Structure formats: C-alpha cells, structure tokens
C-alpha cells in the first residue's frame, strides 16, 4: 500500500542535494517544494514515519465507496433487465405456441383469438414485471 502513495514516491525519486546551486540559502526541503510544487504538509508526511499510511487508507476508502455505488447501480440495472427478459420470454413462448400453423379443424374460423391470446399474455407479462419491480422496491433492492 505504501507504493500506492504517489506523492511519497515522487519525492523519493527526485535527486536530493544539500543546497540549490542558484540560491545556496534554500534548504533541500525548500528546493523540493519549489521545483515540484509539493506542499509543506505532504513534505512533512514524506519525512515522517514511513508506516503512517492513514491518509492513503482514507483515499482508498473513498475510492471503494465510489466503486460500491457504481456496483449497486449496475446491480439495479441487472435486476430490471432480467425482469424484462423474463416477461418478453413469456410473451414469446405464448406467441410461438399459438402461432404454429397446424391444420386442425378447430383452427378455421377462429383467427381473431390469436390477437386476444397475445393481448392477454402481454398484459400478464406486464403485470409480472410490475410485481417483480414492486417487490424489489419493497425489499430495498431498488432505490
């Protein structure tokens, strides 16, 4: 985890000399601060205890919170898509079963029934979708 602390890594990689050639009055800390724009607090952290990684842990915790929020949104999207796929599959099965052109005597003169079967299957599938989403909201799975 210490290797992830980029400001410490940057300061360690810079060459350190006792004095600046242009201004010998500047110390090493001042020349580092002027050359790379590192603030006084981060320089104090660099020269402090190497095992102190509290700031890094807080930064990583903030990143993990963002990742967790994104995963929650993706899980919600997956729930909606799965419920929608289930409902469309139900309509497809009903349309496939009743859309087969098998020549039976009872098929003739009842062509209007296919429309009503599809309407009722679509209504039932929509009702199933609404029930799934309302149950998900009631249990707290969806915001």
UniProtKB/TrEMBL annotation:
Transmembrane recorded as keyword: yes
GO molecular function, one term: magnesium ion transmembrane transporter activity
InterPro entries for the chain: MRS2-like
Gene3D superfamilies associated with the record: Magnesium transport protein CorA, transmembrane region
The UniProt record lists the keyword Manganese: no
Keywords: Membrane, Transmembrane, Transmembrane helix
TM stretches of this protein: 79-100, 112-133
Family to which the UniProt record says this protein belongs: Belongs to the CorA metal ion transporter (MIT) (TC 1.A.35.5) family.
Identification of the protein by name: Magnesium transporter MRS2-I
UniProt source species: Sesamum latifolium
């Amino acid at each position: 985890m210490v290797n992830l602390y980029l400001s410490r890594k940057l300061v360690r990689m810079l060459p350190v000399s006792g004095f600046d050639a242009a201004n010998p009055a500047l110390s090493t800390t001042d020349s580092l601060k002027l050359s790379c724009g590192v603030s006084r607090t981060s320089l104090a952290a660099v020269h402090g205890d190497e095992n102190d990684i509290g700031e890094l842990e807080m930064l990583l915790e903030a990143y993990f919170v963002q990742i967790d929020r994104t995963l929650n949104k993706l899980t919600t999207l997956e729930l909606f898509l799965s419920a929608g796929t289930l409902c469309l599959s139900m309509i497809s099965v009903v349309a496939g079963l009743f859309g087969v052109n098998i020549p039976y005597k009872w098929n003739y003169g009842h062509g209007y029934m296919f429309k009503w079967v599809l309407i009722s299957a679509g209504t039932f599938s929509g009702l199933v979708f609404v029930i799934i989403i309302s149950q998900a909201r009631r249990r707290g799975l969806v915001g």
